[in-house]
Amino acid sequence: MSDALEIPGHLTLAPGNGGLLKAIVETPWSHAEIYLHGAHVTHFQKIGEPPLLFMSAASQFAEGSPIRGGVPIIFPWFGPRDGFPAHGYARTSTWKLTETCLLSNGAVTLRFTLPSTDGFQVEFLVTVADSLLMELSVANRSTEVAQIETCLHTYFQISDISAISITGLEGVTYLDKVAALSHSESCPIQISSEVDRVYGDTRATVDILDPGFQRSIRVEKTGSDSTIVWNPWIEKSKRMADFGDEEYPHMVCVESGNVAGNAVTLAPGASSVLGVRLSSF
Ligand code: BG6
């Protein structure tokens, strides 16, 4: 990795957990860390606030294994696939950091590319500022029509799962993967058991209201028609080797992407961009 990608006082490259290389970013408003393994944002914290992103203390940091927490990049499929890794190979691949830039306002951008991608050109652009902006772009460089699923599987750190509410998805039909039925609700989401929901055909901004941290988190997105809400609760937490049994009250995933019926069809030469901005107030 070239030292030329470092920006003195703003961006350093250093070995992180498991010896995996990470970029450490400092801006006037925030700190962030991004592993080249998965182009995985593991940390974003505004000065004076708790971390925005939840990271499991039980996470693995190893070649070939996904990181549990932060922002796993899900591509080119979402969920399980027979004989292949769940949620695709982007999150377990080592990406290349190809460009870094200090903007005149103090924000820092990093561009990652995913090597060897079955005819896809995949890039991930991260802008660290007072908010965290992430853009996943996929271009179909093959001669065949391709169908892809994409998702930024964002884990948020919250004070207490029982106290938060999630707004923006009222009236949107979702597939409830726990109860295996479709449903919609007119009230904000409150969580008191395992939740695994795929909301379809929605471009809505979602807010997580967290009175315990006296903070609201805003998830704004572009180029995304699906939102997934997930908390494993007690029994599923116990079944997950890379997630602590007592960690579920402190996290919730609100994931922005294009999955299931919202999968993206890319003609040869076509491309699509999934953009997500995370902010807090
Ligand atoms: C969510 C899925 O997006 O990811 C859940 O909807 C899944 O079904 C969860 O359990 C975690 O997946 P993984 O592969 O990281 O354990």
Structural write-up:
The chain is mainly beta and 281 residues long. It has one domain: Beta-galactosidase, Chain A, domain 5. The protein has one helix at residues 233-239; strands at 11-15, 21-26, 30-35, 40-46, 73-74, 96-102, 108-113, 120-128, 132-140, 146-148, 150-152, 155-157, 165-167, 174-176, 181-183, 195-199, 206-210, 215-222, 226-231, 251-258, 264-266, 271-280. Strands 5, 11, 12, 14, 15, 16, 19 and 20 form an eight-stranded antiparallel sheet that branches. The protein is globular and about 50 Å long. It starts with 10 loop residues before the first strand and ends with a strand. 6-O-phosphono-beta-D-glucopyranose (BG6) binds next to β19.
* CATH topology annotation: Beta-galactosidase, Chain A, domain 5
Q: What string, H for helix and E for strand, traces the elements in order?
A: EEEEEEEEEEEEEEEEEEEHEEE
- Sheet with most strands: 8 strands, antiparallel
Principal-axes geometry comes out as globular
Listed once per kind, the bound small molecules are:
6-O-phosphono-beta-D-glucopyranose
